[in-house]
Amino acid sequence: LPEGMLYEGVWDSPVQFAGGSAAQSSTMQCFSECLGISYYSGHQDDREVSGHAKFLTEMRDYMPREHREFLAAVARGPQLRDYMKRSEVKGLVAVYNSVLAALEEFRNKHIQLVARYITVESRRGTTQEHDSLKDTGTGGTGIMPFLKFVRDKTRNHKL
Prior knowledge:
Elements: H1 26-35, H2 47-59, H3 65-76, H4 80-86, H5 92-123, H6 143-155
Helix pairs in contact: 1-3, 5-6
């Protein structure tokens, strides 16, 4: 609904909401914050990256206030990745990287599930009228580029 939906008796004008998305999970975003994974490239002209990062930030609006506040506190706190880089404890970096590898594998499984149950199924019986929606995720993003972006940022964060 490009104009949004009017909820009579609730709002005076139409509103828009993103559909359900795993990006709304405070648990998944907490993993990224705790591991120090940044989704911003530092290059303002990189629209795709900034769009993906912006989407992740916007999805926090769908979380309970306490969850948003917790994620913000984790982000402001000491960074685990910085500690790992400075640590002289033997094997600690390997443990950190194994956690990132496990999270990357989880993200790979998520991509596979989305491909099987959303992407493939959305192509069945697609009419030209709905063709533009076949690559759009439930949260409104370009689904595969977004999921691969998050997975690749996880993979490339290893020390």
